[in-house]
Every structure is written in C-alpha cells, then in structure tokens.
Amino acid sequence: MKTRYNPFLRASFLASVSLVVSAYSALAGSSTWTGTQSTGTWATAGNWSAGAPGATSGTTNPDIATFNNVGYQTITLPTAENNGGITFATVGSVANPFFLTGGTLLPTAGAVIQTDSTYLGIADIGSAITAQGNLTLTANGLAGSGLLIGTTITTAASTGSVTLALNGSNSGFNGVFGNLLTGIISQNATASTLKVSKSGTGTWFLGAANTYTGGTDLNGGMLVVGNAAALGSAGTIAVLGNSTIRTTVGLTDP
After folding, report:
1. Residue 92: what pLDDT?
2. Per residue in 201-224, pLDDT tens?
3. Chain center to CA of 213
4. What is the DSSP letter of 87?
5. Which residue among 91, 145, 193, 227 has the highest number of C-beta atoms inside a 10 angstrom radius?
6. Does an H or E element contain 17, and which?
C-alpha cells in the first residue's frame, strides 16, 4: 500500500512543533534582567536580555540569572524555577534592591546565589528554596548591602549529603546581624542530610528553629545565632578556622 503525501498534515505537524519549541525557548540560556517596571514576572521573555533563564521542570538546568539594573523591583517566579544560580550586581552607584517572590527555586547541584562585589542594595529572596544538591550563598556586596533569605531552605528527596555553604566578605546591611537566613533550614526526610558550612570573612545570621541534622562547620568570619535551635536538630558545631560565633539567645541542648 502506497502512503500518500498530505501537505495539510505536514503543516499541522510543523505548527504543533513550533508551539512546543516556543513554549520551551521562553526559558532558555543564561540571561540578564532588563525589566524596568517596579513589578515583573520571571517567565516573561521580554523582561530578559536573552529570554527567561532556567526551566520550569527538571533539576539540572545550568542557566545563570543576573540582576543588575537600577530601582526597587519585585519579581514573581513561576511555580517552579530550576537554574544554575542567581547573581545580583549593580551598574553605577545607585542602590537597586530586588525582591524575588512566589513559586519555588530549585537550584541545580553546585548552584551559587550571590551578591557580587559591585552590588549595592538588599537582595531579598522570599521564594521557597529546594536545593537539588550542594548550594552556596555568597554575600560580597558593598558596605550597607545584604543578602536576605526570608523563607525555607530544604533539600530534594534522595539528594544524599548536602552542604549549604555560607560565605563572602560582606558583614550585612545593618552591620550587626549580617546577611540573614530567617526561614527554617531543613532537609527532606527521604535519604537526605544537610550540613551548614560558614566560611569567608563576612557575617551570616541564623534566625529560625532549624531542623537540619548534619551539624555546622565554622571555617571563617562570624556566625550570629538568633534562635535557641538555630544550629539544627543535632546542635553540633565544629570550629575549624579563624572564626567567631555570637549568640543573642541561649542555645538548645539537643
């Protein structure tokens, strides 16, 4: 039996493929935020220099999202946002605070969320974070700047041993408590443990009743403890380098 060529079916097929490709290309490649309005949506391709970075599914996307334009802006994330990291930088000398809200960040294993050495302002992340592996939070912003994580940080299921690294040279926007982690740091109950490791000369603050079980390492700088259970369920701490721990509360004996 001979198969007949049908141009209408071919056109329909190509149109379907085009729609699928367009849907996925909206989140494709590392990109820099160019939105100028006070509020914006992450998934809108026109808000970025090269389309929206990351992916709304999966766990291994390598894209880096960079925010460096001036003015306070609130960016709403999609329901899920997997990427290789986020960098906050500044063009010029005007403070440019950013607030990320909504959805859940799914940082790929090895991802870095950071304020770089040019950043002036507060980088505030209000979206929940589910790490797909080791995650680094680096605060290197200028004096008076800070990185604030005001929501939960946990690990994906079956990620094994995960390290949440806190580093950088910045001492925080208030110069007292440092860069802030005020949401609960935990771990997925399925085959996953999380350890917090502090390094660099800067200051980080743990403010919640955390439940991670991997312990806490101090390799440099200052760690400020603002909750009796901030050091997790294990409550153990190892001072491994030239570092300082300061507490504003009595610590819980696990």
Report:
1. 67
2. 999 999 999 999 999 999 999 999
3. 21
4. E
5. 145
6. helix 7-25
